[in-house]
Amino acid sequence: MTLPNSPEARDIAAHLHPYTNAKKHLEIGPMMIESGQGVYVEDRTGKRYLEAMAGLWSVNVGFNEPRLIEAATAQMRKLPYYHTFGHKSHGPAVDLAEKLVGMAPVPMSKAFFTNSGSEANDTAMKMIWYRANALGQPQRKKIIARDRGYHGVTIASASLTGLPANHASFDLPIAGVLHTGSPHFWRDAHPGESEEEFSTRRAAELAALIEAEGPETIAAFFAEPIMGAGGVIVPPQGYWPKIQEVLRRYDILFVADEVICGFGRTGHMFGSQAFDLTPDMMTLSKGLSSSYLPISALLANDKVLAPIIEESDRIGTFGHGFTAGGHPVAAAVALESIAVIEERDLVGNAARTGAYLHQRLSALADHPLIGETRGLGLIGAVELVADKAARKALEKPGQLGAAVNARLLERGVITRNMGDALAFSPPLIITEAQIDELVEALTGALDDTLADLPR
Ligand code: PMP
User: Fold this and answer.
1) pLDDT digits (tens, 9 = 90+) for 414-449
2) Which of 40, 218, 249, 438 has the fewest CB atoms found within 10 Å of its own CB?
3) CATH code at 46?
4) How far does residue 153's CA lie from ligand 1's centre (Å)?
């Protein structure tokens, strides 16, 4: 029940929400979050929650880091806005571009600034098409992504995304975007198949897709080092070496979507380092500014950029860019967020407390509702099942995930269920004691849910 003229009622009346059942929202209304502190947020009634998703996998430095607030204020006062079109630049854009190129785990040549993960991936796709034309290979435009992958919601990036809800009724994916199988070993492996055998099969399927389409038509492969929104899918043994071998064999560009994995999440600065990936392009957002302000970036190496630079000269301009791209206030906040991550060794903390999180989650493996626990660093998931042997949840997919998620909310923990996988991706400042708090709430929520299940 929402009171007339309450923020909840006004939200219902005026606000269409992303990723929300719009009809159900008319009945239940919003949960209003009012403030944040460290790994916690508070709702309008004053109830405190451990924010175990760091917002949307993104508030790496926690919810009230004064250094970021000061960086924003100082830049606002000095120069609140300027663009970078037509040879203009400003200090924060230069500093951040140089910082990102310098931090990249493989040689990257330049950074291009965008405002969201979707825009970064969309831009990557446009650059790949532009480059193919520059190289006189206009037929080489097809892009391969993966089932269960998540790359955003613009027309191009939603096409890359391999989740049904992002395509249904949107008339997506667009032509020329193909999907290959996901690295979800627990769900997709054949009975008796080892991790290596499964990875070999996935790589062979990728090669078969490339051969069937014609290798001369395939421009690039997009992938997250660890899939996030698809259910926190950590690739099995042998997966990345075998996939990368196929990409090299056919000279296909590799775009690593580091939007979630970047800036410490996996216990490495970038997810690419966790798996020895050698991408040609990397897309970055979320942890880049700890989501205090919208900003994203795309890094590209010389192999990608040299033809693009020539083509822009032939045409007269690189005809792409966003009004707010490289926004000076967002760039200043991103620089400060990276400085906090480096100075406080939050990457090391993600590795250490992440190991503790996975140790505590794996200790729950015998719980009747847990099918698998997985993750790396401070990203993890538990796969919920009602029937362990059959690896099945309830009749309706996602119902069990939603039930445990709701029980956790009652216990003061915010998580997110992707179907029946319950994800954890807390701020990188989380302590072992706070992990204990999270795991104890999870255990209680699992027990409550189990008690409610029809026998
Ligand atoms: N790529 C990945 C891996 C993501 O997780 C997301 C967002 N969840 C995006 C891209 C899209 O980012 P945005 O929502 O900022 O457009």
Assistant:
1) 999 999 999 999 999 999 999 999 999 999 999 999
2) 249
3) 3.90.1150.10
4) 8
**Which amino acid belongs to residue 157?**
S
Task: Look at residue 255 in the predicted model and tell me its pLDDT.
Answer: 99
Sheet bearing 281-284, strands edge to edge: 110-114, 296-300, 281-284, 253-257, 218-223, 142-146, 177-180
335 in any annotated domain:
yes
CA-proximal residue: ligand 1, atom 3 (nearest): 259
Let me know whether 261 and 363 are in one domain.
no
pTM for this structure? Answer: 0.98
3-state secondary structure labels for all residues of 411-444: CCEECEEECCEEEECCCCCCCHHHHHHHHHHHHH
CA of 84 to the centre of ligand 1 (A): 24
Name residues whose C-beta falls within 8 Å of residue 176's C-beta, 6 or more positions apart in sequence: 141, 142, 143
Q: What is the torsional sign of CA 127, 130, 135, 136?
A: positive
With b for 16 or more beta-carbon neighbours within 10 A and e for fewer, the 67-105 pattern comes to ebeebbeebeeeeeeebbeeeeebebbeebbebbbebbb
In a domain, 212, yes or no: yes
ipTM confidence: 0.99
Ligand 1 geometric centre to CA of 33 (Å): 21
